[in-house]
Amino acid sequence: AQKVTQAQTEISVVEKEDVTLDCVYETRDTTYYLFWYKQPPSGELVFLIRRNSFDEQNEISGRYSWNFQKSTSSFNFTITASQVVDSAVYFCALSEAEIPSNTGKLIFGQGTTLQVKP
Amino acid sequence: DTEVTQTPKHLVMGMTNKKSLKCEQHMGHRAMYWYKQKAKKPPELMFVYSYEKLSINESVPSRFSPECPNSSLLNLHLHALQPEDSALYLCASSQEDSSGANVLTFGAGSRLTVL
User: Rounded to a whole number, what is the distance in Å from the CA of A17 to chain B's nearest CA?
Assistant: First the structure.
């Protein structure tokens, strides 16, 4: 069975603090994709990053960084020097590479609400 | 154009009404999706269209009827809804990238209230 667990329901930090959002996944597939999406109060889900199961390189994009570890089935997301604009719900998601048709079906975690206070 | 546009943004309807939600994308994506999201919950997949054909129906009640008139448009027809169907309805589209992943681009959603 496929499953994504985001154990942190809500996190509150003060601006400029670093914060890590945890994501643990379960899948039997050897090929799969992991995603992080941000959902601000406006409601739109904004794509942040995609990771392939065969690429364990960590990635940094500005203040955002992602740590992918297959050994622990984790794909954690760190925001460095958080800002008020980072306040949102963050979803981790899993997509399996179905053959022959890759439908892109996403399995979402429950989401982590991040509040960054000034 | 890298957007998915959804209309209306807000919709209030009675249980006997018939209404439609509309979604449009001009990115040339071949797959389009409807998701339903209740407050403080993750999005739940309802339907997937691939090349204008329905490829996934996640056992959605027949009071929700999807339609894909062409590769850029996706509709969700609503009829005889229940108050518990009140939610944010998100449309998305996707195309496989070079790694084989489908990266979904979401619209801002249509917030539906059923009275």
Answer: 25
